[in-house]
Design a protein that fits this description.
84% helix
Length: 118
């Protein structure tokens, strides 16, 4: 379990270091997840220890949201002051995501139904 936890933390650390060094506009932990994905693909999937560690995190996932909830509570004044902009951003991004998903699914469905010209 310690080794699996170390792999997870090292991926996050490496992603953060790469993000800081390169200035990429992608969060370091996201880069770490990509590196973890590459590692898992190359090794043929997670080891039993890594799988057990990940399942342990998933079972207690609610606890990982406590810091985010505390952050929201500490920024209630900012949220209240910008409620209209935040609400509009949520609505517009949701609608835009639905439209893009629908268009992409239609395009993929049509492409999948077309016979191949060989």
């Amino acid at each position: 379990m310690v080794r699996a936890f170390m792999v997870l933390l090292l991926c996050q650390l490496a992603g953060t270091i790469i993000q800081q060094a390169s200035g990429l506009p992608v969060p370091g932990p996201v880069l770490g997840l990509v590196m973890l994905l590459v590692y898992l693909i190359r090794t043929g999937g997670p080891s039993p220890h890594l799988r057990d560690t990940a399942n342990g995190f998933l079972k207690n996932l609610g606890l990982l949201f406590v810091p985010a909830g505390v952050g929201v509570v500490t920024e209630l004044k900012e949220l209240r002051d910008n409620a209209l902009a935040i609400s509009m951003g949520i609505v517009v991004s949701t609608l835009l995501g639905l439209v893009v998903t629908g268009v992409l699914m239609n395009w993929l469905a049509k492409k999948n139904l077309e016979p191949e010209n060989a």
